[in-house]
Amino acid sequence: MATICKADYYYGALLSALVNGGLVPALFEKENDNRQIYEVTTNKASYIIYTKYNTTPSGSKDFTWSFPFSDNELEEIVKIHHENNKEKELIFAFICGQKQLSDYNQVIAIVYWDEFLECVDIEKEQIRGTARLSVKAVKGSPWLRLYGSKRADMLDGKDNTIRIERSRLSSL
Predict the structure, then answer these.
(1) Could you tell me if 30 and 73 are in contact, meaning their C-beta atoms sit under 8 angstroms apart?
(2) pTM score, two decimals?
(3) What pLDDT is stored for residue 33 in this prediction?
(4) Most CB atoms closer than 10 Å: which of 54, 97, 125, 138?
């Protein structure tokens, strides 16, 4: 009998959203048994999707999910990008959940490589704590806001986040 772990629900949410969004993906889990990396081929392109989930957002009106990256994860991400950037596009799926599956405001943020680089200092040139990317969902907004250890959310009192569409998953 197979045991279902918590991660299966969140990674399954991504796979379900891909299929329910009208995509016809061919999915293959990476050979290295890393449950966070999937290869997906749609009718538009081929992708490698690096996936992380977080179920503990901060905030009460607007929610923010933070996704930290260890040095090993960053090395793996850079390696995957260099090995595959001609055949497949590396993108990120950040599954922003809640502890209770029935809670509202759960989203999947699809982040492209250039946006990831604007938010996360993969070269470790700026030592400001742990490398991380944060996703902020503002109630009622069609946009998600990205920032991280390399990019502040506010700069000189103004919004400095990268805005991405909540519905970006459907455009893959």
Answers:
(1) no
(2) 0.89
(3) 46
(4) 97
